[in-house]
Amino acid sequence: MIIPEHLAKQRLAAYGLRVPAGWKAATPGEAEAAAKRLNGRCVVKALIPIGGRGKAGGVKLCASPAEAAAAAAGLLGAQLRGHVVNSLLVEEAMSPQEEYYAAVMVNQELGAIDLLLSLSGGMDIETLAGREDAVLRLHAVPGRDLPLHETRAWLARAGASHTEELAFFLTALLRAAADMDAMLLEINPLALLKDGTLVALDCKLETDDNALNRQSAFQDLRDAELTPLEREAKRLGVSFVPLEGEIGVIASGAGLGMATLDMLRQKGLTPANFLDTGGGISVPMLDGAVRMLLGESRVRGMIINLYGGINRMLDAAQGIASALEHCGHDRPVVVKILGNQQEEAWALLEKLENVHVFKDVQSEKAVARLAALLGVTA
Ligand code: GDP
Ligand code: MN
């Protein structure tokens, strides 16, 4: 996932890397207040998860709080590079003597972590893409810290100036990238100030989603972005994707779920969602999943397609029954349940009003029945 710039910069600061002082702002008033704290001179940047803002007019150098407020008013709500600007970053303005490009990225081809440095950075790094000689590249070994002296020796061999400052910055950058499970950690521009210090003026951080389980701060970030339904699905432990249609779908397995969606479409029905229970079927899971899907008024009916091996299908049936008691029986629910305890599950479900039980392996029949119940012909 892409981590917002201001949060990425907070993380860099914890590694002793210098970033501009700054505040997030969501209104012109907040931008003005932030600019006052910075004594007026500041940079107002659109906080969107894509680069190239400078060239698209999304980075404004301002000389006073009033100018910052005006810049904010112009940016907020505007479309920039395909993203609506909902918030801004108001930062201390810096006067770089030089602008470098520094990055750490996973090199999947070599199984290495690449450290990149270009002494001609700034906005035009893309134009250097074809010129490998302009970019210094060091292949670091994953899981091994790069000692400061190795970075320094590498920089010296490459003929870089400011090797002390750069060596410290790059070594810490590599450490930060490893700790955060970064796929990409890019600083462009990395500004060299008159006094020789380096400041990360911009930071693009993209982390590996497969490592989210050990990055609790990023997990919270991801959770904050979830819709109420996605959050409920996460709580229940099911895989859920919202779709636009009218039929609630629950399946035990991703393949079965996708096949069910295809069959619905063939019969002229439209799925309201994809939902895979995975292997952990329980009474509360099915109760929660059915309630969640029927909680949407656009859902006109539901198909539940389950195979139980280890899972007890009586638990599934009890969960469905409990949810329907809560939601009512006005909408048809077609259930195809096979496997462990199927007879007990069928017996329970057959007693329920407007629940249609299928005991056959062919899902098509269950789907066709649902279409007929809803008066839909393909
Ligand atoms: P991007 O275009 O989306 O990558 O956004 P950046 O944050 O990199 O900003 C674009 C350009 O604005 C940078 O390349 C810098 O040249 C310039 N810039 C950003 N922050 C500052 C600053 O504090 N002072 C000055 N003078 N220029 C800045
Ligand atoms: Mn940039």
At the fourth level of CATH, the homologous superfamily of the largest domain is Succinyl-CoA synthetase domains
Count up the helices. Answer: 12
CATH fold-level topology of the largest domain: Rossmann fold
Could you give the distance between the termini?
40 Å
Structural class: alpha+beta
The description of the largest β-sheet is:
7 strands, antiparallel
CATH class descriptor name of the largest domain: Alpha Beta
Count of discrete structural domains: 3
Gross morphology is elongated
Instruction: Report the uncertain regions.
Output: none
Describe the protein in words.
- With 378 residues, the protein is of the alpha+beta class.
- The chain has three domains: 21-92, ATP-grasp fold, A domain (Dna Ligase, domain 1), CATH 3.30.1490; 98-218, 2-Layer Sandwich (D-amino Acid Aminotransferase, Chain A, domain 1); 227-373, 3-Layer(aba) Sandwich (Rossmann fold), CATH 3.40.50.261.
- Helix content is 36%, strand content 26%.
- The protein has twelve helices and 19 strands.
- It has helices at 5-13, 28-37, 65-75, 148-157, 163-179, 216-225, 228-236, 254-266, 283-294, 313-327, 342-350, 363-373; strands spanning 2-3, 22-25, 42-46, 59-62, 79-80, 83-84, 88-92, 98-107, 112-118, 135-140, 182-192, 198-200, 204-207, 239-242, 247-251, 273-276, 301-308, 333-339, 355-358.
- The strands form five sheets. Strands 1, 8, 9, 10, 11, 12 and 13 form a seven-stranded antiparallel beta sheet that branches. A four-stranded antiparallel beta sheet has the order 2-7-3-4, covered by helices on one side.
- It is elongated, with a radius of gyration of 28 Å.
- The mean pLDDT is 94.
